[in-house]
Amino acid sequence: MRGIHTLTTFPRVSRxxxxxxxxxxxxxxxxxxxxxxxxxxxxxxxxxxxxGLKPPRSRPTMRTLxxxxxxxxxxxxxxxxxxxxxxxxxxxxxxxxxxxxxxxKESQTFEEWFEAAKTLETFQLKDKPRQEHxxxxxxxxxxxxxxxxxxxxxENVGDMMFALRADLLRSLGNMAESRIHNSVSVPPVIKEYxxxxxxxxxxxxxxxxxxxxxxxTFLQEVRHVFGRTALMLSGAGMHGAFHLGVIKGLENQDQxxxxxxxxxxxxxxxxxxxxxxxxxxRGAFSDDNFASTVTQLAFFNGQSLSAALAHATRGGCGGxxxxxxxxxxxxxxxxxxxxxxxxxxxxxxxxxxxxxxx
Length: 358
Prior knowledge:
Helix content: 55-70%
GO biological process, one term: lipid catabolic process
Protein name: PNPLA domain-containing protein
Oligomer: single chain
GO molecular function: triacylglycerol lipase activity
Distance between the termini: 80 Å
Radius of gyration: 35 Å
Keywords: Hydrolase, Lipid degradation, Lipid metabolism
Largest sheet: 3 strands, parallel
Shape: flat
InterPro entries: Acyl_Trfase/lysoPLipase, NTE, PNPLA_dom, Triacylglycerol_lipase_N
Number of strands: 3
Number of helices: 17
């Protein structure tokens, strides 16, 4: 009845417009103008979302006014000379960062990577110095460093051995926190502490008036407390080839740990490393022979396409369809590693410790 009354009260208004208005109010509960403002606000919200702008939680009209204000402010700032310089500086910085990240990614040797990463870190920390607070206990590490330095200055080898035996921990004051070592440089106090420990261990081992048995006992106890670094190679299927690059990088820098463990394809790579003599390992992962080593570790290269298809049509292993022949894989691994026991592999590798996780 209210709609009929409206139609009869305003005869000059188009009947179709009024009918559409009534329909919109019944369907959406708002006028056409409010609906148009809502649509406009939504479009502006989608457009400005990449810039991190969020509308206020209010009516559509207020959101629209907010975006209109943002647009007018942006237009004014684009004509401001200071803002132009600021935008140009930010744009140049992003370009420089992309170039430095590309240099790190495309580096071929450790030396190239180190220089590129150091340049990138210096550039990133130029405007925002690195925050050390909260990552490790700087006061504790500094106190232990001063204690070690005092013992060395007093030339008291007994106190030096006692302090090292009691306090030499891998993560003293949480200084082994991974966030500290994610970059090229580490806090200076950690470097000084590490260098002081290295120097005092050298002094103890070169001291002639200490019996050899006492030295060996001391070094074994310190090593047991400090622990030993190990390399774990995960299962990754075809991506296991990346393990070879890791091994090559560590071997070329003489940083390959004695303890190496692996699972799935990582166990095959770790077994390959654990069954080679040091000379064979250096030769296999040298720049000249690395390509042939990768080819040698491609286990299904020797299986022809016809043999693989014939195996798949026969039903594979245990009657299940599979592309690769388990028997061929087994023979290939045996050719690659040889028929060795863990003890024989340990002796052959010069004391390398191998662990296969199943």
